[in-house]
Amino acid sequence: MKRITIIGTGNIGLSLAKGLVKSEFCKAEQITLTRRNIKALSHESQLGFVVTDNNVQAVQDADIIVFAILPQQLRKVLEEIAPVVKDSDQIFVSVVSGVSCLDIKEVLGQGTSVVRAMPNTAIAIGQSMTCIATDTAAPHIVKEVEVMFETVGAVVVINEDLMTSATALCACGIAFFLRAIRAASQGGVEIGFHAHDALKMAVQTAKGAADLLLQTQTHPESEIDKVTSPKGCTIAGLNEMEHHGFSSAFIKGIKLSAQKAGGLYNE
User: Fold this and answer.
1) What is the pLDDT of residue 184?
2) S-S: 113 plus which of 9, 48, 137, 213, CB 3.0-4.6 Å?
3) SS3 label, residue 213
4) pLDDT in tens, 60-84
5) How many structural domains are present in the chain?
């Protein structure tokens, strides 16, 4: 029976914990949640999770330790738990942006098994797109982490040098797509709909577009071709957006987010 400790129980950590229990990967009593203010975890305690503000104690008896804290907080936590870390038989999973496996092993020891994971906030509803990567962790360890995160969405295993890019495309990407949906709803208001109706219509249209690609496995442009007739209203709207840099702005935003994500740990 694996024991899991999640250090830093914010939105991501808490969603992962609940997803693991819901999918029967493990039971609530096998999961320890840490937070500086444990009063905020009173509900989780009632659900059967172990809660504590003592990171060292939480790590000692754990098989899998998940770091779900801010990059600026990680170094202090690593130094705090380093004396009790067992190099050979514990798995460390980091969902901390911009921190390499080597960064963690420099504090915890070179023999430590470290796997990085980058979920997004859709983890809260079990719809995360999570990318995982490692430097030297064994394949069976990577597989175990992959199975963990499959309880809260889809998983892709990538090379570690692409993790900051994954942060921009998938984690920051949630905000980018939400902003696009918001813009679509505002456009709906401009053309006559009430705000609540326009938002509902934009959200469902965006969901339909995503599901269409997921279920048919087609390319976006092939689906666009199906709704763009000669001299039609769809192609007129698309071209107007492109004239104002829609795709270019989206791409530039992703590139800048990736650049920023890579430097968070050292700030």
Assistant:
1) 97
2) 137
3) helix
4) 989 999 999 988 899 999 999 999 9
5) 2
Beta carbons within 10 angstroms of residue 223's beta carbon: 14
The domain in which residue 51 lies consists of: 4-163
Burial environment of residue 89 by CB neighbours within 10 A (0 to 12, 13 to 18, 19 or more): exposed
Quickly count: other Cβ atoms within 10 Å of residue 16's Cβ: 28
Question: Is residue 3 a contact partner of residue 20, using CB atoms and an 8 Å limit?
Answer: no
pLDDT in tens, 20-54: 998 888 999 999 999 888 888 999 999 999 999 99
Rg of the chain taking only CA atoms, in angstroms: 21
Could you give the CA distance from residue 32 to residue 82 in angstroms, rounded to a whole number? 18
Given this model, what pLDDT does residue 90 score? 92
267 is a domain residue? no
Distance of CA 75 to the CA centre of its chain: 21
Distance of CA 59 to the CA centre of its chain: 23
- The answer to whether the CB of 149 falls within 8 A of the CB of 126 is no
Q: What is the 3-state secondary structure (H, E, C) of 243-257?
A: HCCHHHHHHHHHHHH
The DSSP symbol for 95 reads -
